[in-house]
Amino acid sequence: MGQKMKITGWVAAGAFAGVLTTVSLQTVARGSLAPLPLEELQQLAAVFGMVKSDYVEPVDEKKLISDAISGMVAGLDPHSQYFDKKSFKEFREGTTGRFVGVGIEISQEDGLIKVVSPIEGSPAFRAGLKPNDLITKIDDTAVRGLSLNEAVKRMRGEANTKVLLTIFRKDENRTFPVTITREEIRTQSVRGKVMEPGYAWIRLSQFQERTVDDFVKKVEEIYKQDPNLKGLVLDLRNDPGGLLDAAVAISAAFLPENVTVVSTDGQLAESKSIYKAAPEFYQRRAGSDPLRNLPAGLKTVPLVVLVNEGSASASEIVAGALQDHKRATIMGSQTFGKGSVQTVRPLGPDTGLKITTARYYTPSGTSIQAKGIVPNVLVDESAEGSPFAALRMREADLEKHLASGQGPESKDPEREKARDEARKRLEEEAKKPPQDRKVPEFGATDDFALAQALKSLKGQPVLVSKTQIIVDNKEEKKDN
């Protein structure tokens, strides 16, 4: 029986080697890489056969191959990824801004899930959920102890299915159940408002397929409310990025026509590109410029861009373009430093490969990778400073991160010292009552960084950070 299993395993290994050889030939035909070495292919096939025939219990062949591909890609850098059927679906939802769920923006508070805001028109909105409501149970599962991602997965599901949420409303001091029917949700990546006469704030939380259209709509609303805008704050804090064409479009909304927004460079000819502030570089439909109805004043209105350690990828492209062309003052903290391009290639009807194919460069030719955008004005997140900023992960902290390609990276002992101090402060902060630990929401009246941005637009003195460390690829420096 054992011998029969081994023979079967080697037959499977032979078939596997045949598949890999075919892939190798296809790769050669594509003209991008040399043929894969046969000796290593045979080793991979041999391991596959041994695991299939000798492992303590039967293993699924498809899972073995899927895991092998995942491991191969994961060894490249933190952003390359193999998508199986489930993860490919989730990825598509993230870029389209569509998913099936109840329609709430959430955060965590004291171990529970807090409703930041119900999405207008969503099932949660119609069910009467309000900001600051706390979700204590999802169906029969207690929320305390669940991660934010686990809670999200439990609230999402198939369209027209029901989920029971148990809500605690603090201001009414009562707990009550709400049954909500899931449906397709379109997320809102753009928020904005007139902060005071003459000054407005627009926040982009992600660059999705709908972001440009929603941005145009929000700008039109603001200019209708206040046609004589004297200053605008574009808030990209904690914006993890998204679609390149959306970033080019948002940059083009503020820049002169045809100036360079970003360039890319990689191994493939198609990875060597220059993207400019012109419709052909961002429009999704031929002959249709989504920016055509923007008020002309947007090209010249004084502009401040807010960024922080959570601003990554597409948001760094926008900040870098507006900074290099001296169109905006960049304020906040040094950005995340994700300056690499990922291309998604379908491997079948429901699987795919996201692979890093190039680096991003600002219009001046500076690599964003593992460095990020250094603001013109360093500003803290609160009047007391940014006590926990040093604990936030940046691209340069990620294992196997891609180098900038513009010189060696330097070690930063000052940053490690700052992290130790931040950990101690965090321990003390955790001892405080929950109500004393709340961080002001972006766009709120007590949003310190936003207040400094508005002061800058008015020509008033700004409280500049005295403690932030700038991470540089070639030298270490401290702002004073």
Automatic annotation (TrEMBL):
It holds the Pfam family PDZ_2. The keyword Thylakoid does not apply. Residues 409-440 have a biased composition (Basic and acidic residues). Coiled coil: none annotated. The keyword Chaperone does not apply. It comes from the Bacteria. This is S41 family peptidase. It comes from Variovorax ginsengisoli.
